[in-house]
Amino acid sequence: QVQLVESGGGLVQPGGSLRLSCAASGSIFRLYDMNWYRQAPGNQREWVASIASSGGTNYAGSVKGRFTISRDNAKKMVYLQMNNLKPEDTAVYYCNGLGGWGQGTQVTVSS
To answer: What is the C-alpha to C-alpha distance for residues 88 and 44, in angstroms, rounded to an integer?
Structure first.
């Protein structure tokens, strides 16, 4: 069974940066598209970014130009570099792929 474990969340001031990491299990990680989602209090979970097995990327309009998704297939890791963070980016961020979800990591953007 696939396991996804996120890390790297925390409290950051507006304009700051964070890098989220997702560690995956499974020998066929390199064949799967991977995604980041987020869920703010009172809101539905929303898609943030995707990276294909080929390395192609897509972003939600609200984060395009500020967030960068990347992967390291050798380490079975997915990353989300978040720059110029805004209070509206505050949410629990989830890694998704290989048919599973991580437990989430909290990101809070506040002064």
So the answer is: 14
3-class secondary structure per residue, 12-44: ECCCCCEEEEEEECCCCHHHCCEEEEEECCCCC
| Cβ neighbours of 100 (radius 10 Å) | 14
Here the tokens at position 24 are 């995956």
Q: State the chain's mean pLDDT as an integer.
A: 96
The answer to whether the beta carbons of residues 24 and 2 sit under 8 Å apart is: yes
CB 45 within 8 Å of CB 64: no
Using DSSP's 3-state secondary structure scheme, residue 89 falls into: helix
Gap between the Cα atoms of 15 and 37, Å rounded: 21
Contact between 32 and 95 under an 8 Å Cβ cutoff? The reply is no
Q: Mind listing the pLDDT tens digit for each residue in 83-102?
A: 999 999 999 999 999 889 99
What pLDDT is stored for residue 102 in this prediction?
A: 96
Longest dimension (CA), the chain: 42
Give the single-character DSSP code of 94.
E
